[in-house]
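Late entry, evening session. Most of the bench is empty. Finally got around to the prediction I had been postponing all week. Sequence below, unchanged from the version circulated by S.P.
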Amino acid sequence: MAIVPCDNLPDNADVAHRVVRDLAEAVGDAGLIAAAQDPSFVTTMVDRITPATTAADLVDVRSASGFADAAPVVTEPFSEWILADCFPGERPRWEDAGARFVSDVAPFEQRKLWLLNGAHSLLAYTGSLLGHTTVAEAVADPACRGWLALWWEEAARHLSTSTVELTAYQDALVERFANPRIRHALAQIAADGSQKLPARILPALHAERATGRLPHGAAYVLAAWLLHLRGYGAPIQDLGADASLADGPLPQAAHRVLAFLDPSLADDPELVTAVATQALELERIYDHGA
C-alpha cells in the first residue's frame, strides 16, 4: 500500500509517516504499531498559486455555474505536481494528466521554496512597504524587480537544477506573478513570516555566507520583515513573532530579529550591519513615498 500525502509542506511523506507512527504508538495497539511501519509514504510537491478565496469569488462561481459552492478555489493556469516514484506496486497513470514522477523530490521542493515562495515573501514585505497590495502590482515595480533579481541570483547558485531549467522557471514566475487576474494579496503572504522565512530564505542565506559572499537579496527580505514588525506595510499577523523584537535603533533591532530567526546569524556582524543598513534604506524609501 502507498500513502500519498498532499499537505503543502516540505518532506510531507516523512511528516505523515511520523505522525501516523506516533499516533499508533500512543494508542498502544501492537497491530496498529506494526501496520504504521508497513506502508510506503510518497513525498509530493505541488506548485500552483492559489490566492485566498474572497466573497466576490463565491458570487462569481454561483453566477457562472448556477451552483452555490461554499469553498471554490481560484487558481492560475500553471500547475505542477511532483511525486517520488517509490510506489511498492502498481499506481495510477497520473503522468497522463501532467504529473511528474521523479527519483528525488527535494530539488523541486527547494526550487519552489526558494524561487517562488522566497520571492513571494520578498514581494510581500517590500511591495506592501511601497504601497502595493497584490503580487502583480509589486512585481511591476522596478525597485521590487531589482531586489527580486538579487534574491534569485543568490538562491539559484545553490540549487541543483540545471541553469536552463532554472532560467525557464524564473521567466515563468515573472509571468505568473504579473497575472492581473490572480489577485494574490501581499497581506496574505506576509502573515506568519516567522514560520515561513526559515524555510524560504535562510538556507540560501547560509549557503551564500559559507562561500564568503554577503547575500544582499536575502538581507533585503529580512530588512523588510524587520520593518514589517515595526508596522510598515501589510498588517502584522504572526503569532510566532513578538513585534517588539524590532523596536529601538535599527542595528540593535536587526541583531534581535536575526537572533530570533537563527542565533548563529546574530553572531555575524557583517550580516547584522547589512540588514540594518538595508532597513534604513527601505525606511527612507517609505518616508519619501509617504
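Two things to note before I forget:
Residues 24 and 220 are 45 Å apart (CA to CA).
The two ends are 59 Å apart (CA to CA).
Will write this up properly tomorrow.
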